[in-house]
Design goal:
The complex is a heterodimer of chains A (231) and B (241). Chain A has 231 residues and is mostly beta strands. Chain A is built from three helices and 23 strands. In chain B, helix 1 runs parallel beside helix 2 and helix 7 runs antiparallel to helix 8. The chains are: A mainly beta (231), B alpha/beta (241). Chains A and B meet through strand 2 and helix 2 of A and helix 6, strand 7 and strand 8 of B.
C-alpha cells in the first residue's frame, strides 16, 4: 500500500497508509487528509491510485497544488515526490519504499489510515507488540487491575468481584460476576450482567457493547483498555 | 486576544523564564497554566512564584496533587517518588495552601482547560489514543480543550463522526470541528525536541500556534545535579525524551 507523509515546517505530523482508490485532500472534515489552514481550499486536490500508478489532481484550488515546486493540474507521482499544498508538504511513497519499516508510535510520528478510527490504534507500536506477543486480543490493566496484560483467549471472560472470575474488578456494590466479554465471531462484546451504571465503555454506561480497538472499559473502580488483535 | 497556554513546567525555572520572555514578545493578553508546575526539577518554589505572578489561571496537575498527599503511592513511579519527597522538603509551608486550592479544570467562553483528560480530571488519564480522545470529548462541552500531562504536543480533531490525530503544528480550526490540543511541556519535553514547548491561541485570527523556545539546559541540569535529583531526570532534558 502507498504511504503519504504529511509534514508541516519539515516535521512529520501524520502518516497515511491507504487501501482506497482515491483520497481527497482539503480543509474540511469530509476529506481523507484534512489540512486546517486557510491557504488550503475546502476540496483542494485528490490522489487517484490505479494499479501501481498514482496521480494527483488539483481541484481548481485557489492557491494551487505543487509537485517538486512546480505548479500542476494533474501529475503522475513518483516515489518520494513532494506535493506542496499551502504550508504543508506531502511526501508520496510507493509501497516498495516503506515496506518493512517500523511504524513509529507515540514518539512524535502519528500514524493514520483512511479507516482512521479503527486502524489508528493498531499502528501504535507498543500495543502492536503486545498483540503480536499474545497472538490475539488483549486487555491492558489501566486502574485497580491485578494484571498489566491479559489475553482474551476464551469464548467467555468473566469480570467481577468474585474469587473465581477471570478478571478481578474493584468497587463498591459490584456483583460477583458483574460483566462478561463474549467472543462473537471475529469480534468481542462486553455485557453488563449486574446493576446498570457499573460497566462503562469510554465513559458511557453500557448493557451490551461490541468492543472496538482502544476502547476503555470501566467496571466499578477498575479500568481496562481493549486492544484488538488479528485472529 | 492572544492567549498563551503553558503546561508541565516541572520546576524548570530556566525553561519557564525563557518561555515567559517569548510570550512577552508575542504580546499575549492572558496566560493559562495547566499544572505540573512542580516536580522533577530543581526550582519548585520560584516556579510557583513566577506562575502566581504571570498566569491568570493556574490548574492542579498530578504533581501538585501528589505534593498535597492526594495521590496514592502506587500511582507514582519510582523517580517521581524521589523527586516528590525532595520537592515536599523544598516547599515552604506557605506554598501548601496555594497548591491545595488549585482547580482541576477551568473554562473561558468556548475553551476548556484541564491538565490531563477531561474525563474525571482527578484520575489523571492520558489522552493519546483515539479511544482515549473519544472518551475525553464526551466530558467537556466547549469547542476546544487545551491539556498537557503527556508532554507530547498533539492535536485530536473530532468532526464528521471521526477522530483524527496529528502531531502538534500551527492550524486554523474548522468551525464544525472540536479539538483537544496538547500544548506539550515547558520544562521536560518528550517529543525528541529538547526545546521548551507552549501554545498560543489568537482568537481574532482563530489560529493555534505551537512555539519552541531554546533555553539554558545545562544550567538547569547543573542545578539538578547539585540537588542530587535522579540522573535519569537530568539526562532526559538534553534529549527531550
Amino acid at each position: 500500500m502507498p504511504e503519504i507523509i504529511v509534514k508541516y515546517d519539515d516535521k512529520v505530523i501524520e502518516r497515511i497508509v491507504t487501501e482506497k482508490k482515491r483520497i481527497s485532500i482539503g480543509r474540511t472534515n469530509e476529506n481523507d487528509i484534512v489540512l486546517e489552514n486557510r491557504g488550503v481550499s475546502r476540496k483542494h486536490a485528490m490522489i487517484e491510485f490505479n494499479n501501481n500508478a498514482a496521480v494527483i489532481i488539483d481541484n481548481e484550488s485557489l492557491n494551487g497544488t505543487f509537485v517538486n515546486n512546480r505548479k500542476v493540474a494533474e501529475e503522475v507521482l513518483r516515489d518520494e515526490d513532494i506535493i506542496m499544498i499551502g504550508k504543508y508538504s506531502l511526501v508520496y511513497r510507493t509501497e516498495a519504499s516503506h515496506q518493512g519499516q517500523a511504524v513509529a508510535g507515540m514518539d512524535g510520528t502519528m500514524v493514520l489510515n483512511t479507516k482512521r478510527q479503527k486502524e489508528m490504534l493498531e499502528n501504535d507500536r507498543v500495543e502492536r507488540e503486545i498483540v503480536a506477543r499474545y497472538g490475539g486480543s488483549v486487555l491492558l490493566g489501566e486502574e485497580n487491575s491485578e494484571f498489566s496484560e491479559f489475553k482474551l483467549d476464551r469464548e467467555v471472560t468473566t469480570i467481577g468481584k468474585a474469587k473465581f472470575v477471570h478478571v478481578r474488578a474493584k468497587g463498591l456494590f459490584l456483583a460477583g460476576i458483574q460483566a462478561k466479554i463474549v467472543q462473537e465471531g471475529a469480534s468481542y462484546a462486553l455485557h453488563n450482567l449486574g446493576k446498570t451504571g457499573k460497566v462503562s465503555v469510554n465513559g458511557e454506561p453500557v448493557t451490551r457493547c461490541v468492543l472496538k480497538n482502544g476502547d476503555l472499559i470501566t467496571v466499578g473502580k477498575s479500568a481496562f483498555k481493549f486492544v484488538e488483535g488479528k485472529q | 486576544m492572544i492567549l498563551a497556554v503553558i503546561s508541565d513546567v516541572h520546576a524548570n525555572l530556566e525553561a519557564f523564564e525563557a518561555v515567559m520572555r517569548d510570550i512577552e514578545q508575542r504580546k499575549a493578553d492572558r496566560i493559562i497554566c495547566l499544572g505540573d508546575t512542580i516536580g522533577y526539577g530543581p526550582d519548585p518554589e520560584p516556579c510557583l512564584d513566577l506562575a502566581e505572578k504571570t498566569c491568570e489561571v493556574k490548574l492542579m496537575g498530578n504533581h501538585e496533587y501528589a505534593v498535597i498527599g492526594k495521590l496514592s503511592p502506587q500511582q507514582i513511579n519510582r523517580t517521581a517518588k524521589i523527586s516528590l519527597s525532595w520537592t515536599q522538603d523544598q516547599l515552604a509551608d506557605t506554598a501548601m495552601p496555594r497548591i491545595t486550592d488549585l482547580p482541576l479544570a477551568a473554562s473561558m467562553n468556548d475553551l476548556y482547560f484541564v491538565h490531563a483528560s477531561p474525563w474525571e480530571p482527578d484520575k489523571w488519564r492520558y489522552v493519546l489514543s483515539p479511544g482515549e480522545a473519544d472518551a475525553a470529548f464526551k466530558h467537556f462541552e466547549q469547542r476546544v480543550c487545551f491539556n498537557g500531562h503527556s508532554h507530547l504536543p498533539m492535536i485530536f480533531a473530532f468532526g464528521d463522526n471521526q477522530i483524527r490525530r496529528q502531531a502538534g503544528h500551527d492550524f486554523q480550526p474548522n468551525e464544525e470541528t472540536r479539538y483537544i490540543v496538547n500544548v506539550g511541556s515547558v520544562g521536560q519535553p518528550r517529543d525528541n525536541d529538547p526545546r521548551a514547548c507552549y501554545v498560543t491561541y489568537d482568537t481574532t485570527e482563530d489560529e493555534v500556534s505551537f512555539h519552541r523556545v531554546a533555553y539554558d539546559i545545562s544550567k538547569a541540569q547543573h542545578k539538578m545535579k547539585q540537588a542530587e535529583l535522579p540522573a535519569m531526570l537530568i539526562n532526559r532534558l538534553q534529549a527531550g525524551v
